[in-house]
Write a structure and sequence with these properties.
The protein is α/β, with parallel strands linked by helices. The protein is 61% helix and 10% strand. The protein has a seven-stranded mixed β-sheet, with helices on both faces. α2 packs antiparallel against α3, α9 packs across α12 and α11 crosses α15. The protein is globular, with a radius of gyration of 25 Å.
Length: 375
């Protein structure tokens, strides 16, 4: 069939023209959001304002419904566009404490440390970095510091903190380690000034801090580091407060258990040695996402995950209890006790409650995205 004989050709041409117009509109919209970002940084507004985002989505959904267009489609498009918009505003931020002095990031050349170096620099702070070979010049580097942020491997954190006894009393001492009890107590012991424990719940590959969670564990003199909390909010971060003990207990489930189970699953796959390409080809979207999360783990540093798993005091007893549950489940399978499995399944579903239904809805969105990306 020649091009001129193709009955779809005129319609496809119209679609191409409309798509080009969409691209041009997106360029114009992003240009405006850059200006919005500039004004926000000048007047001290945060990048991410949840109420504004919710209002915008509600209005556009209503408009779509009135025109017979899927509100879900419009919301999906807008959320993706807004994510890009936040990125265009990731150029400069207001400085919440211009009188602070120097920010010193110990380990600032590391993956996560460099993220915070960039954020402080984009906010107009003077930033200095102290690495392993710089300790002979530490006094000069710390001179004039208003914040010292510890961002080193977990196993070195408390050792590094022990070297910080000479900081000025007014200086804020904070860390961004995955465990909080040990580092927080170490900072309180070594420093008489304000102390704050932080745990960024994201990796170094995030495009910005908009909607990223940072756990806040208060240490000492909270009124003297409120500026830093406000600074992180201006970056778009979501702050969740916790005690160090509550944080570490939660991380045993959120990080240790999940990472360890993923490690074991990956180890089992490698030992069984199935055809990985076949597994990927035969997987439905949900299983491809699960397999992708396993593969993602093994594309990263084994030292990081070893530190997370081996450093948490809750790891061993928690994982042993998990093994007991696995043994119980295997016993049901061995004895063919379907009734016990179904009864237990319902019991677990009741424990999850409404979260199970919400997860079903949210996961459908992820699966649609996975379908879109499949070539």
């Amino acid at each position: 069939m020649t091009e001129h004989a193709d009955p779809l050709a005129p319609l496809r041409q119209q679609i191409d023209e409309l798509d080009s117009q969409l691209v041009e509109l997106l360029v114009k919209r992003l240009a405006i959001t850059r200006q919005v970002g500039e004004i926000k940084s000048q007047v001290g507004l945060p990048i991410y304002v949840p109420s504004r985002e919710a209002e915008l989505l509600a209005k556009r959904r209503a408009e779509a419904e009135a025109l017979g267009l899927s509100p879900a489609l419009v919301e999906d498009l807008l959320r993706r566009i807004m994510r890009e918009s936040y990125q265009t505003q990731h150029q400069r931020y207001r400085c919440c404490n211009p009188e602070l002095g120097k920010v010193v990031v110990i380990g600032g050349k590391g993956a996560l440390g460099s993220v915070f170096v960039d954020m402080f620099q984009l906010s107009g702070y003077e930033v200095a970095i102290l690495e392993q070979d710089d300790w002979q010049n530490a006094d000069a580097i710390f001179n004039g510091a208003g914040l010292v942020l510890v961002s080193v491997p977990m196993k070195l954190t408390e050792e590094v903190i022990s070297k910080l006894s000479g900081l000025p009393e007014h200086c804020l001492l904070a860390d961004i380690t995955s465990t909080k009890s040990g580092p927080l107590h170490a900072m309180l012991d070594v420093h008489t000034g304000p102390v704050l424990g932080l745990h960024p719940m994201f990796g170094p590959d995030v495009p910005s801090l908009v909607k990223q969670v940072i756990v806040v564990c208060h240490g000492r003199y909270a009124e003297r580091y409120e500026w830093l909390l406000e600074q992180m909010r201006s970056w778009g971060a979501i702050l969740n407060e916790s005690t160090a003990g509550e944080h570490d207990d939660a991380m045993a489930f959120i990080q240790v258990m999940r990472h360890f189970c993923t490690y074991v699953y990956g180890s089992h796959l490698a030992g069984e040695n199935p055809d990985l390409e076949k597994l990927i080809q035969f997987s439905s979207p949900i299983y491809r996402l699960e397999l992708a999360m396993v593969g993602r783990l093994f594309a990263q540093s084994p030292n990081l995950y070893a530190d997370i798993i081996f450093s948490n005091k809750q790891s061993l007893p928690l994982l042993k209890r998990f093994r007991d549950h696995l043994d119980q489940a295997l016993k049901m399978l061995e004895t063919g006790d379907k009734a016990a499995f179904i009864k237990d399944f319902f019991h677990i579903g009741q424990w999850f409650g409404d979260f199970a239904k919400k997860s079903l809805v949210e996961s459908k969105k992820l699966l649609l995205k996975a379908d879109d990306d499949r070539s």
